[in-house]
Amino acid sequence: MKTSSLRFGIAAVLMLTAAVILQAHSRAEYFPPRASLANLPAQIDGWSGTDNPLDAETRKILGPGEFLVRDYQKSAPGEDPWINLYIAYFPSQKAGDTIHSPNHCLPGAGWVPISREIVKLPGADGTAFPANRYVVVKGEDRMLVLYWFQAHGRALASEYSAKYYLVSDSIKMNRSDGGLVRLMTPMGEHETADAAEARLMTLGSRFIPMLDTYIPR
């Protein structure tokens, strides 16, 4: 409990510091061209996606940005469990509306992490990038979660590093845009985290090369 409180306190301080610095850095921002998240293909390699619009209250909490919440299911019924894809993109974070980390949001929704680690996922250029991997539980339900922060061609697991680059890039590039990518899938009773991750990446490996179109480099 103390560790969680400390992490939350550090995150809050970083968010406040970033907001103050970004507000002080008052040059007009550069907004690079990008495609809408709604244009991300709903049909990907045998997976069919169904969008789940966010309610007004949730959008108010998240702040001004673009959000995609989509459940993908294998086209053939009875195959793999569903995969939920969530992408949040903020064109600007200067007003203090910054990315909400699943590290805080999942416990708020009743999901309790029972394991957490950083794993390497294959990037579009053939190199690997770090992502957070959580196994979370709610009652008897288990879920595997993968998520990372992405901006300006950089993918990061650490929210603290993401805040650092948010300030640095605002000064150097005159940009404060950024995004979060999260994948979730239910885990079978005896399924391992590695097996669930492999299933997530049957879809993830297909759309990761597309992300620069929606979260610009």
Walk me through the structure:
The protein is α+β, with helices and mostly antiparallel strands. The chain has one domain (2-213). The chain has helices at 2-24, 56-62, 102-108, 159-173, 193-207, and strands spanning 43-44, 47-51, 66-74, 83-90, 112-122, 128-138, 141-151, 154-156, 178-186. Strands 1, 2, 3, 4, 5, 6, 7, 8 and 9 form a nine-stranded antiparallel β-sheet that branches. A hairpin with a 2-residue loop joins strand 6 and strand 7. Helix 1 runs parallel beside helix 4 (159-173). The longest helix is centred in the N-terminal third of the chain and has 23 residues, at 2-24.
Radius of gyration: 17 Å
Main sheet makeup: 9 strands, antiparallel
- With helices defined by DSSP (H or I, 4 residues minimum), what is the helix count? 5
Helix content: 25-40%
> What's the number of domains?
1
Strand percentage lies at 25-35%
Overall 3D form: globular
Number of extended strands: 9
- In round numbers, the mean pLDDT is 87
* Helix and strand composition category: alpha+beta
In angstroms, what separates the terminal alpha carbons? 37 Å
Topology:
Layout: H1 2-24, E1 43-44, E2 47-51, H2 56-62, E3 66-74, E4 83-90, H3 102-108, E5 112-122, E6 128-138, E7 141-151, E8 154-156, H4 159-173, E9 178-186, H5 193-207
Antiparallel strand pairs: 1-2, 2-3, 3-4, 4-9, 5-6, 6-7, 7-8, 7-9
Helix pairs in contact: 1-4
